Amino acid sequence: MSKFKVAVLLSGGGSNLQAIIDKFKSDETIELSCVLSNKKEAYGLKRASKANIDNFYVDHTNYSSREDFDRELMGILEKYKPDLVVLAGFMRILSPIFVNQYLGKLINIHPSLLPKYKGLDTHKRVLDNNEEYHGVTVHFVDNTLDGGPICAQSSLKVETTDIDELQKAIHELEHELYPWVINQIANKKIYLSDGEIIKKV
Ligand code: GRF
After folding, report:
1. Pocket probe mutation, ligand 1, options 136, 174, 181, max atoms within 8 Å of Cβ
2. pLDDT (tens digit, 9 = 90+) per residue, 79-110?
3. In the predicted model, is pLDDT for residue 131 greater than 90?
4. Quick one: fold of 109-201?
5. How confident is the model at residue 201, as a pLDDT?
6. Which of these, 72, 131, 145, 185, could form a disulfide with 126 (CB 3.0-4.6 Å)?
7. pTM beyond 0.85
8. CATH classification for the domain delimited by 1-102, as one of 3.40.50.170, 3.30.479.20, 3.10.20.30, 2.70.130.10
9. Residue ranges of the chain assigned to CATH 3.40.50.170
10. 159, 134 Cβ separation under 8 angstroms
């Protein structure tokens, strides 16, 4: 039986990619097939190379429209036929062309307890608002910003006023949650059906 193939899109350090690599490197049913970045200097590309995973840099500034860039990404992904496309710190909004192609097979991790704190600078806003709890969300991507159906969340009690410390604690939650969700989706325990999320966990 062929393995469940995962593609990762990123723009930065790729600590979530590393967590995914570490979790599935010897897995019998799930494989990481390729990594794409829109940033040449993204350390995530190096992590992919080290793990012998095919990786590509596609400079979005070379494309005159968002759609053209997305078509280029889709062209690369098409060769790998991923069962799941995982956004892990990918700092580009994907156009409906891309999102509709991978609907139900496209997930994102967001550093807040959605629907609270959509968008950027979530840690700062959480601290500014003296929130008691903060956390992370993995969700299916649809054509709304940080608004797709939620797969899973994990949370922590905010016990610091230091943004770096908070970010580190949130990253630790992410590194547990994201591989877990990928595993659940690969095993058909979390999926989308007519836009509704089904969870058998
Ligand atoms: C994570 O905090 C994730 O929630 C957000 O982007 C960040 C990526 O971090 N979407 P890394 O590149 O995986 O270290």
Report:
1. 174
2. 999 999 999 999 999 999 999 999 999 999 99
3. yes
4. Rossmann fold (3.40.50)
5. 82
6. 131
7. yes
8. 3.40.50.170
9. 1-102, 109-201
10. no
